[in-house]
Write a structure and sequence with these properties.
The protein is an alpha/beta fold and about 200 residues long. The chain is built from five helices and four strands. It has helices at about 1-60, 75-85, 90-100, 120-130, 165-185; strands at about 105-110, 135-140, 155-165, 190-195. A four-stranded parallel beta sheet has the order 1-4-3-2, sandwiched between helices. It is elongated.
């Protein structure tokens, strides 16, 4: 009778163990299912916003991939060759820098030379054939320099004209460059910075 009683107790306890294990398994399963649903919703959300952005760009700009297109360095180079005379080496360097912009977050280009060498002309040609015209900011060192907010749609082209070779302007341009570099790498902006110096050095 004692054995039967012990066996009876064991038999009664066994369903309790199963019940306890079910209590533990159910929350774990719910957590896993919730995580899977959340991940799927995130993917769907990303897909939704990507599709929305493509449709928006198609309607507004006529190109669904307007914001993520690479810069057309060859087109700009061809136009520079047509309009800027006797600067073949400089134009090749500009083309190389623009091609590099497709791989790097920020590219810096300095236009340096005497009067009439085509510095301002080259900058205007780049601006004219720049795909993201709303992202162009032309600033003069002689005025109060204030960079407007950047955009993640396409490239940001920032041109500083009338730069001097004195220490104040060089130090200030370095500070601006560092700020742009920080924003480009930290926040995902793509920036082309052009510095046009007034005199040759």
């Amino acid at each position: 009778v004692k054995k039967l009683r012990l066996l009876g107790k064991d038999i009664k306890k066994e369903p309790e163990k199963r019940t306890n294990s079910k209590i533990v398994i159910i929350p774990v399963l719910i957590s896993i299912i919730s995580l899977v649903i959340y991940q799927l919703s995130q993917i769907k959300s990303c897909e939704f916003w990507s599709a929305y952005e493509r449709n928006f760009n198609k309607v507004v700009y006529g190109d669904p991939y307007f914001c993520i297109r690479p810069i057309d360095s060859q087109l700009i180079y061809n136009q520079l060759k047509l309009e800027v005379a006797a600067q073949e080496d400089a134009l090749e360097l500009i083309r190389g820098s623009l091609e590099l912009a497709n791989k790097e977050r920020i590219v810096r280009i300095a236009f340096n030379g005497g009067v009439g060498t085509g510095k301002s002309l080259a900058a205007s040609i780049i601006t004219r054939h720049f795909t993201w015209k709303r992202n162009v900011q032309k600033l003069s060192w002689e005025d109060d320099i204030q960079i407007s907010s950047l955009t993640k749609c396409g490239f940001n082209l920032i041109i500083f004209d009338h730069m001097n070779f004195n220490s104040a302007s060089i130090e200030y341009s370095k500070a601006i460059e560092q700020e742009l570099l920080f924003k480009a790498k930290g926040e995902g902006y793509r920036v082309i910075l052009i510095l046009i110096f007034k005199e040759s050095h």
